[in-house]
Design brief:
This protein is an alpha+beta fold. It has a domain of 52 residues. The relative contact order is 0.16. Helices cover 27% and strands 29% of the residues. Strands 1-2-3 form a 3-stranded antiparallel beta sheet, with helices on one face. The N and C termini lie far apart (46 Å). The longest helix is centred in the N-terminal third of the chain and has 11 residues. The chain is built from 2 helices and 3 strands, in the order H-H-E-E-E.
């Protein structure tokens, strides 16, 4: 059963205000790199299972678990894909 302190902390975190937009004078917003396309590409090329995909600078670091051949153990493969 959840403690009253935990419930109170959760309720307090839900009532905090969201982010506030400031007047930057620009309607253009740069978004952080999205590695979903790179991850999908690596998974389809390797036939593996996605473990992680993280943006690092101008590349995506994608880690997949590739099945072993025959009775071999699966291998963890990390690939860097340019964004």
């Amino acid at each position: 059963m959840a403690s009253p302190l935990l419930i109170t902390a959760l309720a307090a975190s839900l009532t905090l205000p969201g982010p506030v937009l400031t007047g930057t004078g620009s309607d253009v917003v740069q978004a952080a790199g999205d590695c979903s396309a790179a991850a999908a590409q690596v998974v389809s090329e390797t036939g593996g299972e996605l473990l992680s995909a993280q943006p690092k600078g101008d590349t995506c670091v994608v880690t997949v678990l590739v099945p072993g051949k025959g009775n071999a153990r699966p291998r963890k493969v990390t690939v860097r894909v340019p964004m």
